[in-house]
Each structure stands twice: as structure tokens, then as C-alpha cells.
Amino acid sequence: MSEVLSGKTVAQAMLEEVKTRAEALSAKGTPPKLAIVRFGARPDDLYYEKGAKRTCAQVGVACDTTELAADVPEAEALRAIGALNDDPAVHGILILQPMPKHIDTAKVRYLLKPEKDVDGTSPINQAKVFEGDPTGYPPCTPTAVMEIIKHYGIELKGKKVVVLGRSMVVGKPASMLLLGEHATVTICHSRTKDLPAEARQADVLVAAIGKAKMVTADYVRPGAVVIDVGINVDEAGKLCGDVDYDSVAPVASQITPVPGGVGSVTTMVLAKHVVRAAEKVAASR
Amino acid sequence: MSEVLSGKTVAQAMLEEVKTRAEALSAKGTPPKLAIVRFGARPDDLYYEKGAKRTCAQVGVACDTTELAADVPEAEALRAIGALNDDPAVHGILILQPMPKHIDTAKVRYLLKPEKDVDGTSPINQAKVFEGDPTGYPPCTPTAVMEIIKHYGIELKGKKVVVLGRSMVVGKPASMLLLGEHATVTICHSRTKDLPAEARQADVLVAAIGKAKMVTADYVRPGAVVIDVGINVDEAGKLCGDVDYDSVAPVASQITPVPGGVGSVTTMVLAKHVVRAAEKVAASR
Q1: Maximum distance among all Cα pairs of chain B, rounded to whole angstroms
Q2: pLDDT, tens digit, 9 for 90 and up, residues A131-175
Q3: How far is CA B276 from the centre of its chain?
Q4: Torsion angle of alpha carbons A280, A281, A283, A284, nearest 10°?
Q5: A140-263, what's its fold?
Q6: Model pTM?
Q7: Per the CB < 8 Å rule, is B184 touching A193?
Q8: Nearest to A192 among B158, B166, B188 (CB)
Q9: Are B127 and A127 in contact (CB under 8 A)?
Q10: CATH T-level topology, domain B27-115
């Protein structure tokens, strides 16, 4: 049976450092603060927001939510985000995704100040991830994947990593971060001809396709490391990942569970990014 | 023996369209213009500049060079680029690379107006390539690779593409452009464990590592398409690619030569980007 890569353990290990840095900032008069922007009240947004607030409270990062109506006029939404850009007390801005369809996502992404864009959706941060420039903020989820890999000392150099999924939220940035650690990276997606065969080549398999339990044992080479980024609901209404845990766990050497895996690290990464953003502000004073 | 993918043929095929568009712009009072910025007088810069000017002349794109001393103070270089940014007669700016070591490349890249950055080095254009947003300008060399693939009708959807090299000039942007055409993309580099074995999996192999004749027949699956992006000089002082053409050509189904391959398309892509930039300016009037 494989070793469970516990996201909770990783988040716990990160907590002390993030908290110490947040306290130092507050002591110096720059209490780190996150602004969450939420459109409407979708249950998964509320769920994520609750988790983010809990983590922020644990480490001493202030967190306010700007609630916008689901049908807020675009100009008003842009004004609200502009106000957060300009508010010197706010160090990080998280806009819960996806935004309503009538909002031009590009306008928001280009408006958001890169130095406050702690979830890496602005073009400047995307370019930095693409380039391998560590001064930017990659999105929290792929960063959480890297934190787990680092915490458990999983070797990447020269290793074969297969990423299932090519979204800008996970697949592509994860690929670039893994490439930055000198892995040989294959990016697969829905058009890939033989997905199981590609996946079976992986020393480390990262699943980020958003399909419940799609990755079964035949996708996994015995002894591979499996990182499950999916958060789905199965036919029984239970939270599950992209990986069919019960069939894959006996084959893999190490595997992240869902829940309790990548998702458990994401909000800690978010808090850490806010602290880093606040540190930069404090250092520039 | 394999079919030769002639860059000259591709450039020739592009010429008429680019020329027609350039003439239409000139007729409407917006003659398209490229500004080349060169530091010092390195022979390869002069060689590339000469090629760019020849292509621009062929299609009716004006082209001026701003010559800066190799030891020009950084502030002065930034002022010169800022002036080109502000010059309404200039639609595209190409800064010959690499810049001298005392110039902070990031400062230049962040200064350059994305809408004039026809060789895709500004962060906004990098983010657009990363994201798959076609409104940006990817670097000319990987775009030339795509033009060759398109011209010869090489199918990418679901195909396995292996890119050797992870630079921001070729490897990474080429990977994203290929991914955008729904290829399954593997990015290899100097730390990849078994480079020939990875390369042999490719339906389409893109070599962009900058080592003369490194890719030998054992890197190539019989029948694969081989695109050689390298421009090197061999031990006899002759121009050659990253691919050992004589050993690979009998194995591949289609192959680009060096010279006469990707490099022959690059300046036509550059001219096409300048025309597109000028068209946007004309349309916004």
C-alpha cells in the first residue's frame, strides 16, 4: 500500500513559518491583509472563502470580503477592484472564480495589480510563472502541489512528470513549476490519443482534469507518485478527486487523498503569498 | 528519403499576403514600419538585421535601425527604446538579442509596449502565448515553426510532440503554440534522463537546444517529422542545425534543412507581425 501524502501535514508544517512572518509584520506596523472578492453566493465560493478565512485567522492574516451581486454591472465590479488596488492596507486580492459570464475576465486580470495578485491571474504573474521568475505569484493550487512535493522530498530532477490538464489555473502553471525543478514534463489533455499510456510513463503523475475518479489503476505505473488536484463530487454525492483512490492507492508509491490533499494546502499558500506581498510593501518603506 | 520542408517555400507562400496587406496599409496612409535596435555590431546581429531588412523591403515594410554602442549606458538605451515606443510612425520594435550584459533585460522587456513588441519578449505577450491568446505576438522563431507545420499540412491534434529545449525564445513558446493545436507536448532539456528515448516517442520532434548536430538518427522514430530550430556552426565552420541532417534525413518522413528551414521563415513572420501591428493602429483611428 502506498504512503499517503497528507496535505494537512504539509499545511501544518508551513503554518509556523507563515505565522511568525505575519506576526513580525504586524509588530512592525504592517498587519498583512487579504481582500476576497466574491460575486453572488455560490456554495463552492462560500466553502472556499470559509477555508481561506480559517487559515488566515490561524496565521494572523486579516481577511475581508467584498461581496458583489452576481449581476453587478461590470463597471462597478472594476471600480471595486480598483479601490482594493489603491487601498494601502490591502496586500493581497483574491477574486473567487469563475466570475459571472457578463464580466470580462481579461479586464479584471489586466486591472489587478500584479503585486497584490496573490492567486496569479494577472498577465505579469502568468508571464513570471512561464519564464520561471520566482518573484511572481503562481496560482495557489499548483503552488500547493509543489509544496507537497518539496515537503515529502520527492525528487523531480530528470524525472518524468505527466500533467493531465492544461488549464491556466493548474495544468499549465504546474507544468512550468515542475519544469523549473528540472523535471521532463509531458502535458496531456482531452485530445491526447492514449491518455493511460502517457500517464503510465510518469514517475510523478499530476491529475488536474476535473473528472471524478477518471484516473484508474491502468493510468499508473507501479511505484509512481500520484498527485490529485481534482475536487469533484461522485455519484454518491461524496467529495472525490480525479483519481480513483481505491484502485490507484495499491499501485502508487505515494498518493494525495481527496479531501485532505492538495486542497488542504491551497489556502496556506494563499496566506503565505499575502505575507510575502506585505513583506515587500514593508521593505519598500 | 524524407521530404524536405523548405522554409524558403513557406516564406514565399507568405510573401504575397503580407505584401498585399502592407500595400493596403500604405495606401491608407499607415505605411508599416519596423524599428530594429542593435547594440554594437556583432556579426550575427548584422547578419540577422540584413535578412530582416531584405524581407521588409520585399513586402513593403519600412525598416530603420537604431544603433547603440555596445557599452551604451542603460538609461540611454531605455530612453532610445522609450522614444520608439512613443513614435507613432513605428509599429514594431525588434531588439537584437542578446543585449549587452550591463543592460537589465527585464527593464527593457517591461518598458517595451506590448503592441509594438513584434518578437514577443514583453511579459504581456509572453502571458498571451502561455494562455493561448492569439491577440499577442509570440516570438518569431516558434511562430515560424508553426507556419511551416501549417503550410505542409502536418497534423498536430492528438499527436505526440517532443520539444528539445526550454528557452523563452523557442522551447517554451513553441510548446504552448503546439499545445494550442491540441498536440500532446513533452518538454525536454539538458537534465532529461534519456533524451534519445524521449525524442523517439515523437510524431513531431522540435529541436531547439543550440548544439550542433546533437540530434542523431537514434533520436528519431522512423517516419517522424523533424523540425530543426538550431543555427550553429560545425567543426568545419559550416552553418548547421541541432540535427545531424545526413543521419536523420533517411529516417524522418519530413525534415527542415539548415540553412533554408525555420530561419528562412523567421523574418517573414517578423514582417507579418509588423503589418498586423500597423493594421491595429490603422483600425483604431
Answers
A1: 56
A2: 999 999 999 999 999 999 999 999 999 999 999 999 999 999 999
A3: 16
A4: 110
A5: Rossmann fold (3.40.50)
A6: 0.97
A7: yes
A8: B158
A9: yes
A10: Rossmann fold (3.40.50)
